[in-house]
Amino acid sequence: MDMEAKEEPLVVSELKELYKTNREHIRNRLKEFKQMGAESEKRLFAELCFCLCTPQSKAKSVWFNAVKPLMDCGRLYSCSREELTDFLRNTGVRFHRTKAGNIIQAREWFNKKSIKKLLEEENITELRDCLIKNVKGLGMKEASHFLRNTGLGDNIAILDRHILKNLPPLGVIDRIPENLTRKRYLQIEEAMRDFSEKVGIPMDELDLLLWFKETGEVFK
What average pLDDT is seen over the chain? Predict the structure, then answer.
């Protein structure tokens, strides 16, 4: 018997109602992410830098105060590690030294390899693993975030704290894991796919819906 044919938990019913009232907004945002995938190499690199800087920092602040200004003036693509470290520190990005180093290393790698060509890889799992292997600072969550923001998030999950805290009440997992290993990440991601199918909310839309539920907005 599927979830529609029996009485479902109130929290699931509430999520469905929230989805109905915000579905178009969420879909429009996802269309913008799809368009991102067709942007220039430099714009895609800026998006990667955003995803490298968001852990332990506020996403909107990272984008509007740090990454976007550096992108707009062109310094994101040429500044030294010291300059970048100072700028990230002054704009409130946490772990600025580590993140500056990760951005410089990523810049060196992508100076030799096209991001756009890399994103043409059809196997999303292999593409994500490639990013994690070659871009220091990208874990499962950050790599998934970058792929979603470039229009490739149809079947993957971004398991940040906003998403994870909602999964036990929805019955997707029993509890939030203390240590999110790659194996556990993939297990939870698969559980989210099952839930997505049961409630009729596509994976990428479910991610933004849960983000909206927690923050009251759909950013990126």
Answer: 92
